Amino acid sequence: MRGADFATMVISGFFWLAFVASANAAPVTVTGCLEKGHEQGEFQLSHATGGNAEQYELIAGKSIDLNAHLGHKVEITGEKASEADEKSGGKKEAKETPHEHLKVSSLRHIAAKCP
Q1: What's the Rg (C-alpha) of the chain?
Q2: CATH number for the domain including 60?
Q3: How far is CA 89 from its chain centroid?
Q4: Does a structural domain hold residue 17?
Q5: What is the domain extent for residue 35?
Q6: Distance between the two ends of the chain, CA-based, in angstroms?
Q7: Alpha-helix residue ranges (DSSP H) falling in 1-115
Q8: pTM confidence score
Q9: pLDDT in tens, the chain (115 residues)
Q10: 38 CB-near residues (< 8 Å, 6+ apart)
Q11: How many domains does the chain have?
Q12: Using an 8 Å Cβ cutoff, are 98 and 53 in contact?
């Protein structure tokens, strides 16, 4: 019984740490070109400035319509996410360039064309 109580406390601690880390995640704002991703329903931000990567794979937040801004220069604000946060959970492509994942919380149109 003591072992089970200890295991429960350890697991609860991990969940609490994960919650605190996600609740304190600082928003990231990047500007770039909104494009279709490698898979159907995926989006990416290329030629990105303002963040730690040149390319981001985007996970659309609620009420964010990324399709309406395809091919446009946009400013994206969101939180860094992991590949596990993606809905598809698809396979990683061999030719995929290094990038970060960003869960989009807001989008602002900058220009109708990308550089």
Answers
A1: 17
A2: 2.40.50
A3: 13
A4: no
A5: 27-111
A6: 64
A7: 2-23
A8: 0.68
A9: 566 565 555 465 444 445 444 555 789 999 999 999 988 889 999 999 998 899 999 999 888 999 999 999 999 999 998 766 554 444 455 555 667 999 999 999 999 998 7
A10: 44, 93, 96
A11: 1
A12: yes
